[in-house]
Amino acid sequence: MNKTLLPQIATFLACCALVGAADSKRPNILFIFLDDFGWKDTSYMGSDFYETPNLDKLAGGGMVFSDAYSCAANCAPARASLLSGQYTPRHQIFNVGTGARGNARHRRLLHIPGTDTLDPKIRTWADQLQSAGYVTATMGKWHLSNDPLPYGFDVNIGGTHSGGPPRGYYPPHGKVPGLQNASKGEYVTDRLSDEAVKFIRSNKEKNWALYLTHFAVHTPLDAKKELVAKYQKKRPGNLHQHVAMATMIQAVDDGVGRIVAVLKELGLTDNTAIFFFSDNGGYGPATDMDPLKGYKGTYYEGGIRVPFFVNWPGVVTPGTKTAVPMIGVDIYPTFCEIAGAKLPSRQSQDGVSLVSLLNGKKNSLGDRALYWHFPAYLQSYGGKFNREQRDPLFRSRPCGVIRVGDFKLHHYFEDDGFELYDLKNDIGEKNNLAGKMPEKVSELRAQLNAWQRRVNAAIPTERNPEFDAEAEAKAIAGEAADGKQGKGKKRKKKA
Predict the structure, then answer these.
(1) So what CATH class is 26-86+122-361?
(2) Where are the domain boundaries for CATH 3.30.1120.10 in the chain?
(3) What is the pLDDT of residue 166?
(4) CB-based contacts of 39: which residues, under 8 Å, 6+ apart?
(5) Nearest 5 degrees, angle CA 40-CA 262-CA 167?
(6) What is the side-by-side strand order in the sheet with 417-422?
């Protein structure tokens, strides 16, 4: 060997060693993402009936966010924002499907249909992590196209364009990718947890990112049969008492326990960052976010504020809590930073990385504005739920929303109506301050309008020719009466 090459070879090998060491220090990412899981649906957030000991332990070992938000009050737009790092006006997925929702005679405006498929030209955080050398997998609900693989995933188990579990939580699951060979009596939540364990075992020597996007606890409320008797015998709580929901939540938590045990067995615990999040607020007929107003489909806090924690050994101090607001678009830059992946150079990004906050810099994000844009309609559950909405016919009508600091402004496009809330003193959004604080309304409205122009937000203005004011008034009166009759029946009280 030419001795003059030895120094160069030594330098090359040293560089290779450094690269290998850097790669070994990049954490694996386990992203547990639930569907229709409410702000208080874990024990650590205050449920008095649902049981989540494994999630509670992870939350206690990490940082819990009290003011975490989804980018939308229902599934598809929330997921599109999460994967793209963009607010809804940019990707234009505004609702589940593109059709009009609710009774046509009650809709004053023609909604903005948008699209139901995430543009494949948009690079997701999975694309960026994959390019950075991570093995990526999605397991469970996808909802943004027919196939998630072109969006940066190496593995797909269960992901289709469907918004719910394939034919319920028990087989047969049809021709859903990765779930065709389901055994008799297999519960799909358990199956996804088992597949997660297999993925981690098979990639234990690599950097991996697992998007475990459970169908739970989306409807149908399909109880895990062997847990039903347990919760039927359990004393109902003031807040929660739904037996089927309790079994569905325990199935998720039990699976998390199995996954955490495997991480420990393989020596991966200290090199895995675990994120826990939900796509929107809880399903009104089965759960409760009290003291928050609203539920899935509303843009009150109960529809968009969700549980979120990060467990990242060696980085996040165990047992920490923060009231700094975060929102779904923040996941993208956060994942890229911790994975050493680049952000796409020619794609707008609306979020900010949470890494500095996770490192303990409490004021690193400042009082930035958070935004929501919903130019469509979501029909009401009806009856006793009407008092959790602006009007009894729709969970939400077309609106824009902004939160800055402690103040949150709703702007409804049909009637140019405003609602202003001081969340620090009125987390339940009971006291509309719009009439008392016109200057604050003007200030936040100007910020909201400037943002809408900046992102080219489509705002409905065309009147709906099918709208019938008399029919709407009659329907509102009837629903209001039903809601009044249901008042006080929302929660069972302990004996």
Answers:
(1) alpha beta
(2) 367-495
(3) 86
(4) 45, 281, 282, 289, 292, 301, 302, 305, 306, 307
(5) 60
(6) 369-374, 399-404, 407-412, 417-422
Residue-wise pLDDT for 234-283, tens only, equals 999 999 999 999 999 999 999 999 999 999 999 999 999 999 999 999 99
To the question of domain 367-495 being in CATH 3.40.50.10540, the answer is no
In angstroms, rounded to a whole number, what is the distance separating the alpha carbons of residues 463 and 230? 53
- Looking at residue 24, what is its pLDDT? 61
- Rounded to the nearest 10 degrees, the angle between the axes of helix 188-202 and helix 243-265 is 10
Residue intervals of the chain classified under CATH 3.40.720.10 are 26-86+122-361
Contact between 411 and 401 under an 8 Å Cβ cutoff? The reply is yes
Going by their DSSP bridges, the two strands 369-374 and 399-404 should be labelled as antiparallel
The C-alpha atoms of residue 242 and residue 283 are separated, in whole angstroms, by 11
Is 363 exposed, middle or buried (CB count within 10 Å of its CB: 0-12, 13-18, 19+)?
Answer: exposed
* Torsion angle defined by CA atoms of residues 245, 249, 254 and 256, in that order, rounded to the nearest 10 degrees: 160
User: Mean per-residue pLDDT for 321-325?
Assistant: 95
The strand pair at 417-422 and 135-140 is best described as unpaired
Q: pTM score > 0.85 for this model?
A: yes
β-pair partners for 463: 109
Structure tokens at 317: 């101090």
